[in-house]
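Input chain follows. Return structure tokens only.
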Amino acid sequence: MKIVLLVVGKSSVSHWNDALNAYRERLLHYIPFELVVIPDVKNVKNKTEAQQKNLEGVAILKVLQPNDCSVLLDERGAEFSSVQFAFWLEKKINSSPKRLVFIAGGPYGLSDEVYQTVPERIALSKMTFSHQMVRPIFVEQLYRAMTILRNEPYHHQ
């Protein structure tokens, strides 16, 4: 089993990248993990938000494989405490054949086609985070979930 975080566009904010890389290194001690970055859409000044989301959506769907278990990171998705998320994640890991793919949209969110193709959603919060902030926050939660499942002292109740 491999966990994939599929995101749109490179992050240019160094402190978010540093945090992401720190938690990615920690996470790799527990489970294979890959960050897949869809390139930014070109010539966005000439495109509407909907056109940009649709082009990003096409690129996202091209990356998904037939046996993937895919989940959208969406503010309207199911909400979990960190412990609940850990146990949810454990069930997914045990039942998913190859890849568990979490998808974070770009600055304008996800296209309707992505929503229709990937019905499962989880929320990091009811609040909205920038698409650059979501990356380290989510990878930290993956790491936290792994430590919870192994009964390690990182997470305090």
